[in-house]
Amino acid sequence: MKRSLFSLWLTVAALVVTLDQLAKWLIAGHWQLGETVRVTGFFNLMRAHNSGAAFSFLAGAGGWQRWLFTALALAASILIVWLLRSHAGQKLFAFSLCMILGGAVGNLIDRSLHGYVVDYLDFHWRFLTPLFQGGHFPAFNLADSAITVGAIGLILDELRRVRRTG
Q1: pLDDT tens for residues 48-67?
Q2: What is the pTM of this model?
Q3: Is the N or the C terminus of the chain less surrounded, counting Cβ atoms within 10 Å?
Q4: Annotated catalytic, 157?
Q5: How would DSSP label each residue in the chain?
Q6: Is 144 marked active-site?
Q7: Which of 110, 119, 122, 157 is flagged as catalytic?
Q8: Phi-psi region for residue 142, left (φ > 0), alpha (ψ -120 to 50) or beta?
Q9: Could you give the CA distance from residue 153 to residue 97 in angstroms, rounded to a whole number?
Q10: Which of the following is catalytic: 20, 110, 122, 144?
């Protein structure tokens, strides 16, 4: 049973990677860098490249950050696979880990192939203007979304664990 759950979690992670790479392939194959298509009054699809990490952290560092983020993603992926194998029966914990794994591998593929991550989701609201230029939240992608969902899941899992033992 535990082995089949482990396989299920790896399959979910692989699905995240596949969907992420498909979306990035469509964006990169059809749009020029910086091209934007308005979808709603607060959401655009666009093509952006991020050579840094979240919020373009270290994007202008000169290139060494590519290898740092690649190494971190590889190390995190190995740790996550080990944790998934050890805790496959803990559903929320394992789901959260597989989302983070899928997102990390999706962005790792980009960084390895291109030296940057392809971003394409652009949300913008006027109330964000004091924080972000033109009110545009930094562009992101499906892999980033999966990592965020996974992080939220880990927090919820820990809060549940604390409540049970407290």
Answers
A1: 998 765 555 444 545 556 67
A2: 0.87
A3: C
A4: no
A5: -HHHHHHHHHHHHHHHHHHHHHHHHHHHHH--TT-EEE-SSSEEEEEEEESSSGGGTTTTS-SHHHHHHHHHHHHHHHHHHHHHHHSTT-HHHHHHHHHHHHHHHHHHHHHHHHSSEEEEEEEB-GGGTTTSGGGBPPPB-HHHHHHHHHHHHHHHHHHHHHHHH-
A6: yes
A7: 119
A8: alpha
A9: 8
A10: 144
Contact by Cβ (8 Å): 146, 99: yes
Residue 89 token pair: 């029966």
Would you give the distance in Å from CA 79 to the centre of its chain? 17
Lookup result for tokens 């993603």: 73
Total number of residues shown for the chain: 166
Q: Which two tokens stand for residue 118?
A: 């392809």
Token pair belonging to 82: 């080990």
Token readout for 76 is: 């995190």
